[in-house]
Design brief:
Blueprint (H helix, E strand, L loop, with lengths): L3 H27 L2 H22 L6 H27 L2
Helix pairs in contact: 1-2, 1-3, 2-3
């Protein structure tokens, strides 16, 4: 359905998005959780969407899924930290 060149570009794009999302989500656990969590979630979602549409880079699906989960965890931990900070003040 798609040419090999298009599939190669989309595979590289999905792999790059998955890797960048994982890096952002791991950094987000330690600092800037809210910002990096949202960015990681969106990048991981884009990678998963590209993988699903073009059926490329299937080996990166688990990396993108892990990044998506960690992005959600970043946001949740940031919100809990914010609530705890105001509750203990």
């Amino acid at each position: 359905m798609y040419s090999r060149e298009v599939l190669a570009v989309k595979a590289a794009e999905a792999a790059s998005d998955a890797k960048n999302a994982l890096i952002m989500s791991l950094i987000g656990v330690f600092c800037f959780g809210f910002i990096l969590g949202i960015l990681a979630y969106r990048k991981a979602e884009a990678a998963l969407e590209t993988i699903a549409i073009y059926q490329v880079a299937q080996e990166k699906r688990s990396m993108a899924t892990a990044a998506k989960i960690l992005g959600i965890l970043d946001i949740v931990l940031w919100v809990l930290g914010l609530v705890a900070r105001f509750a203990l003040s």
